Amino acid sequence: MDDDYVVFLCELMSGVGRITARRMFGGHGLYHEGRMVALVAEGRLYLKTDASTRAAFEAAGSNPFVYAGKGKPVTMSYWLAPDEALDDPALMRPWAQRAVEAAARAAQAPAPSPVGARVRATAETGPCRGVVCRGRPQAGSCRSGARRRCALRP
């Protein structure tokens, strides 16, 4: 991908503040204040969306960025920037602002817990966090070395 094009896109979106670029997966991520607000892939600009902004992108005839995942297509929350916005910073500004706002909201949302994540220790789960007994202790089932202190132990 042409680095000059990425520099052009950063300048085009600069109406919302400083935009920086980082290479990633054969494309570039565009960042505003450390948050990724856009994706440049296959020579096209995709802007960050969420439930609040997606309707505007749909109304403009945009499409989401989709890539081939493990056996199935994966749709991301980045939508194609409208063509007319790519020619004029004044027309790009509201679209870039939507992307900045969507990225800010995404940063505020709680992160999903990973599969198999350990449960935080509480009085109910005891020092082993219920991991060994999976929160269902039975006599002699605690192998965590904390059985004398386990609040779950029968």
Question: How does this model look, in words?
Answer:
Helices cover 23% and strands 24% of the residues. The radius of gyration is 23 Å and the shape is globular. The protein has a six-stranded antiparallel β-sheet with strand order 1-2-3-4-6-5. It is an alpha+beta fold and 154 residues long. It has three helices and six strands, in the order H-E-E-E-E-H-E-E-H. The longest helix has 20 residues, at 89-108.
Order of helices and strands: HEEEEHEEH
Query: How are the strands of the largest sheet arranged?
Result: 1-2-3-4-6-5
Largest sheet: 6 strands, antiparallel
Mean pLDDT: 81
Uncertain runs are none
- Overall structural class, as computed from helix and strand content, comes to alpha+beta
Q: Into which percent range does the helicity of residues fall?
A: 10-25%
Tally of extended strands?
6
